[in-house]
Design brief:
9 helices
Length: about 200
Amino acid sequence: MLNRHARGFFTALFSPLARWLLKIGVSPDAVTVVGTLGVVIGALVFYPLGQLWWGTLFITAFIFSDVIDGIMARMQERGGRWGNFLDSTLDRVADGALFAGVSIWFFTGGADTPIAVAAMVCLVLGMVVSYARAKAEALGFHANVGIAERARAARVGAGRHRLHRPGPAYRGAVFDVVPPRGRQPGDRDSADHRGPAPVAG
């Protein structure tokens, strides 16, 4: 849904920044790495301390790197297996840190076991979705479907956790069960643009 209704808006919004980053010599891969580090720090430093509001604001600032690096790659007309591999792998690292941080807090100081368990379910299902997609595409099936892009699903999962309500955590599990909606050719982690999906063993 983000693809259809907001792609043009976010491209217009972040294109000047993407163009400036390329101008000063920053690569899409560097944006991917920095964005992942920001999400990991926010999730594993702020969340376990119970700072869900500030952690979410911190993480949101870096989540958009997943949009910016794609714009930069399109501007460079850049493709290749390495970029595809790096982006997809670091996405899983960031997602894992996000739900791990939520789990740590609600298993400890947050004292809300149902939310903690739901976050762990999201963590596990996120890994399963990645493996299932890679395996399916390795076998020749089309598995690039779903109801939300990663950035949107991550904002839903992170943004609602700060309210201390169990519902959003369970909704996060739904986003993990249904993999992200197919991205358009030219997106940062699109198999059409960056090379085929990694083959699962």
